[in-house]
Amino acid sequence: MSVLSGKNVLLGISGGIAAYKTASLVRLFIKAGAHVQVIMTPASKDFVTPLTLSTLSKNPVYSSFYNDEEQEAEWNNHVDLGLWADLMVIAPATANTLSKMVNGNCDNLVIATYLSAKCPVYFAPAMDLDMYIHPSTVQNFTALKSFGNFIIPAETGDLASGLSGQGRMAEPENIISFIETDIENKLPLKGKTILITAGPTYEAIDPVRFIGNHSSGKMGFDIAKSAAHLGASVILVTGPTNLEVNNIFITVINVVSSQDMYDACHRYYNDVDVAIAAAAVADYRPKTIASQKIKKAADNFVIELEKTQDILYSFGLQKKQQFLIGFALETENEIENAKAKIQKKNLDLIVLNSLQDEGAGFRKETNKVTFIDKNFKIEPMLLKSKEAVADDIINKVRAYFDV
């Protein structure tokens, strides 16, 4: 999944021949999962039609400050457009548009929206080669970059004038790649690797039956998504769940038993920066597993159990540089039991769940947690969606690394 997925992209199109490429650019933004709103200068409509771009973006296209309909005029609010956007792209950015951007010459909707935008702004110049290297253009590039904008350099090739050289607007694929790379490199957890466990484990009794629990895995999956959204490389080791994730930053490793999870985690643990043990791992497993299905015969049936290997405890024993976060699901003496777990398992932070709290626990869309750090600082949180709780947990990671 692209880092553009879910982003609100405002595409400003100015009047140059390269505007024909914006149909492909819109399509690629949509393919990456972005929401696209197109605004155009009046001149750009001579090169590409609003109908084409509206069809591709699935949104109306705006090119003036108001729509003069037969019954009433409707204002196209450039301020709202600028605030809506997570990023703005001006492509093609002609010499005329660049000059207006620098000097604040606000005579069309694209420039008015640019001046109102609070988001990062990328611009892709497009003009003939002599215009591209002219001192006034170079000066405008410098000024726009000093304003905090990002230039997507023009490419070299055949130009509309018949000449060949630098000045071609970057190809749509290269514009997308440039923006994705730029966003990825600025994500606060870029370069960090986080190991996350999720879901239940199933401990086999025979080929048909198992001992398990009610964990859906949602909390762990939401933590993985939150971490990946901020650029972390995530290794998600998950027991059996119905959940799926599609993100280029998340590697999913499916396991079944507690031993499977233990082995998978320890293949990666030494090299990660953070480990978050959100899985509901079985504490016990059958001492022997029947090779055939056990028949229903006797009135009573006894299964002898043995302890499983404690994954979180093993993490604490081997901890070096890792920031280690554990979970505790308690039904009584919650704080005392959580503090004991921090000490016993050498944790930096524990996320305490209580089944006494309404809306918390297994198979719920919400969770209510209390954070307790290794210094026993207690921070109770409000009932929130599991996605919001996941963000809170990852914010603790950010605070640890001061990013």
Model description:
With 403 residues, this protein is of the alpha/beta class. Helices cover 33% and strands 24% of the residues. Helix 3 crosses helix 5, helix 4 (95-103) crosses helix 7 (135-146) and helix 9 packs across helix 13. 39% of the residues are buried.
Shape by Cα distribution: elongated
Distance between the termini: 23 Å
Could you estimate the helical fraction of the residues in percent?
25-40%
Determine the strand fraction and express it as a percent band.
15-25%
Radius of gyration from the alpha-carbon trace, in angstroms: 28 Å
Give unreliable regions as ranges. Answer: none
Q: Kindly state the number of beta strands.
A: 23
Derived from helix and strand composition plus strand pairing, the structural class reads alpha/beta
Main sheet makeup: 8 strands, mixed
Lay out the secondary structure.
Blueprint (H helix, E strand, L loop, with lengths): L7 E6 L8 H10 L3 E6 L9 H8 L8 E3 L4 E3 L2 H7 L2 E7 L1 H9 L5 H8 L4 E5 L3 H5 L1 H12 L3 E2 L3 E4 L5 E5 L3 H15 L6 E6 L4 E2 L5 E2 L6 H12 L3 E6 L11 E5 L3 H9 L7 E4 L6 E3 L18 E3 L3 H8 L4 E8 L3 H12 L3 E6 L11 E2 L1 E5 L4 E3 L3 E2 H16 L2
Parallel strand pairs: 1-2, 1-5, 5-6, 6-7, 10-13, 10-15, 13-14, 15-18, 18-19
Antiparallel strand pairs: 3-4, 8-9, 11-12, 16-17, 19-21, 20-23, 21-22
Family: In the N-terminal section; belongs to the HFCD (homo-oligomeric flavin containing Cys decarboxylase) superfamily.
Keywords: Decarboxylase, Flavoprotein, FMN, Ligase, Lyase, Magnesium, Metal-binding, Multifunctional enzyme
Organism: Flavobacterium kayseriense
